[in-house]
User: What shape does this take?
Amino acid sequence: MLTPADLDALLLTFKVASLATLFMLLIGTPLAWWLARTNSIFKGFINAIVSLPLVLPPTVLGFYLLVLMGPAGVIGKLTNELGLGTLPFTFPGLVIASVLYSMPFVVQPLQAAFTSIGQQPLEAAATLRASPIDSFFSVVVPLTKPGFLTASILGFTHTVGEFGVVLMIGGNIPDKTRVVSVQIYNHVEALEYTEAHWLAGCLLAFSFTVLLILYTVLKTQPNVQQLK
Amino acid sequence: MPPITARFQLAYEQFSLDVDLQLPSTGITILFGSSGSGKTTLLRCIAGLQKAPTGFLEINGKVWQDSEHKIFLPTYQRNLGYVFQEANLFPHLSVEDNLQFGLKRLDKRPNKTGLQNLLELLGIEHLLKRMPDRLSGGEKQRVAIARALALNPDILLMDEPLAALDFKRKQEILPFLTRLHQQLEIPVLYVTHSHQEVAQLTDTLVLLEEGKVQASGSLSETLSRLDLPFAQDKEASTVWQATLIAHETDYHLTRVAIAGDTLSLPFIDAQPGTSLRIQIYARDVSIALEKPKATSILNILPAIINDFTHDAYGQCIVQLKIGSQSLLAHITLKSAILLNLQCGMPVYVQIKGTSLLN
Assistant: This one.
């Protein structure tokens, strides 16, 4: 069965992933919109930066974040100045690292969805008196709902599954930074295979269910093809 | 209402637009031209969907663009209706919600009877609850027209609204457009490259070629100009406004008045006094020097030869005047030479057939 420590780890993981997903949507939506519309020369550069975590070993990303957010790093100095202390090995630090690490999983589906609806619905909305912000919420969001769902699910599950970044930036502090993946590692290190089985099974069932929903239910969502 | 002033200059690598137009404030103005002539670009500039760096646009006394004074009203602040080539309905909204989309955003909602009339006129009352993917192409386009007109716009802009439809759907929607034409009080700018739509709908014709205005004027005047491609076209025709006088029921004919003369047409089911639009194809008109006596052709009118030209394929295009009305005739070059046709010569025209456009 799951131990209280396991449940704490599950709860913490859920908190980190929810908060990270929320921030990723808040930052990722305008970013994806800009990437989908712009012809700026910086488009490729920004795309490459956002996608970097896809190919970079998580430990590398974690290492740089640790350095940057540490007492001697640029961000660390800034947070110290503001009286916030340093971020590594704290819950907020873990959320920030997760946002950066999982961002491409949110930005890419959104960018694809925004690109696929094209200019036409926006032009129609403009001729029907809707301002750009109005049309974003009344036309773009409903038309790209599957994209938002995919982005949220991928962002959430990817955050749940992270390990390398967590170890580098969060460490292994119960109730603060000890998420499920780290807890499983602890169990295995201590040769507690039964406990490890329970937690690993939970994650496996969760991930599979989510992906099943993604590929079966969401596929039937209305898509932009019906525009024509 | 004051006329519409539209001046735009815009240049891309492969294409430039340079127009200066004064357009009437009522009736349908057709922007006609081949693809790449700039007709859609001009319409998009008027809608503000595209921004010409240099431009001035005034509609109904309101300035929508004045680049000299850095005025450019964004599309959503312009009181216009726009019908796209593909209906462009919002797929996530029902027909009714599509119609309400613009209405909800108006400061002052027009009264409900306006919308009700529009639904009846376009025959879409029974579709309100449907989703756009359950509509035929013609139905979608009718909803799109109603959606644009429901806002009581100062101008209606239509970008090839029939181009994406097949022949049958076109025939289904043209009568609605003709009816709209008779009832609308606002100016309509209509982009097309279809001769049929030109003949059926136009009051004013603007001919665009390579981003420039080649000609603009009333339909009958523009259609019969020998220096424009219309007169040379195999389907060349002239369009006349006529008034119904009386019926000859025995012969199943109807007599109409035109330019001080009368014509006999196949029976038209309408009251005397009705205004009619009649199309006469140039290939259906022949020329005689003397009034033909024994002929089966009913419609023989005196005319004056105004001008003529010929193409490289032995065809002579003759422009005639009957009173103030112009008429085109396509005859063979050989006949023109044998008859020794001269400008200013009085002749008789025989009209073999006419078609009614409304």
Summary: The longest helix of chain B spans residues 167-183. The mean pLDDT of chain B is 89. Chain B touches chain A through 26 residues (CB under 8 Å).
